[in-house]
Amino acid sequence: MTTQEPPQQLSVSQLNRLAKQLLEDCFAQVSVTGELSTLSRPSSGHWYFTLKDERAQIRCAFFRNRNMRVNFQPQPGQQVVVRGKVSLYEGRGDYQLIVEHMQPAGAGALAAAFEALKAELQAAGWFDPALKKPLPPAIKHIAIITSPTGAALQDIVAVLNRRWPAMKVTLLPVLVQGEQAAGQIQRAIAHANQLARSASHNFDLILLTRGGGSLEDLWPFNERVVAEAIYQSELLVVSAVGHEVDFSIADFVADVRAATPSAAAELLSPDQSEINSKVQLLRGRLVRAQRRRLQHQREQLQQLNRRIRDPRSRLREQAQRLDELEMRLRRQWQSSQRQRLARLAGLQQQMLLLSPDRQQATRLNALTQLQARLQRSVQEQMRRRAQQLQALQSQLRQLGPEQTLSRGYAIVLDQQGRAVRRAADLQQGQRLRGRFAEGQVALTVDDSE
Asked: What is the C-alpha to C-alpha distance for residues 40 and 61, in angstroms, rounded to an integer?
């Protein structure tokens, strides 16, 4: 017969500590779906609530360092999915769930659809940074696409009024959640581009925005039609959807993403106080620069004043200089006049020598002399020619045929008038002509020896 050992005696604290260790070891990570109830948010930032279904409930603790990552505002009565570990609160012995993550029930399917569309559009190049349009240096007119009653619009207007009241905004009102929201947003983006093309509205960009909410609330900004409208927009699109931790497909496709609507307003507007400070700074620099310039010019003026002499002394010097120049001019003029007179006299002498009357008389005299010389030369030539002619005539008479004929000789000529020198050249019956000192006779050859 065995004796059963008595159970170990434990204090309540020890028991709770062991139970806590056992629960945390066995249920280190669980995911539970249920309805939120009795949600409490103390100033510490921790959340305490009850998660229940039709037959049971469990207390939950969601500490601040974890619940800061939740991208929606949980409300009592909302179905949620929480993930965490089962534990025990030792002080009261309460069994509880330490929550590490929370999302609305059904968000898993939406998240999967979100990731699938994100991967598809990224592969198509819709998120390519090279396609993003840069913000213009000066923004004057913004087309805001959002709900006219939402807090996002009020936040944007408040920031713009504070930072840059001169900014012009045009609201294109749309639904920002629900089944019809995506279509309205798509049409509003297309309408803004149409207004910009028609030059009726000089929009610099489109601001697509709404406040925070659950994944279901933000889902219109994850629709493909909205992403396509942003991708095809000629106007630059700035997306400011939800809170800083919220990311939508519209954020990835847009040219610029702002964490919140207020952040978008600050991004798109200059700070008038900062600009005023810069203006004041530049004004001070300008005033100082002008003062330095005036001081420098004043010093230059003083130096010039010291260099300037008495004008009367300068006038006397100028008068003396003028007298010197006048005397030099007078001497030069007189010398020039003498040279001109001498040249004129020379020209007059040349003109007398080259006078037409004088030249004509000289040429007439020369012509008379030449005529006399010509006449004497002609007479002398005629006299010499006459003497030569007489001598030639005398020689012709002495040597000519007439002198021979006068001594009783005759000349026999043929029919061509040529003298016949040999009888052998004649033929019987040939007609000839005989020339005598006085007269001629016709002859006929009867015989020749």
From this structure: 10
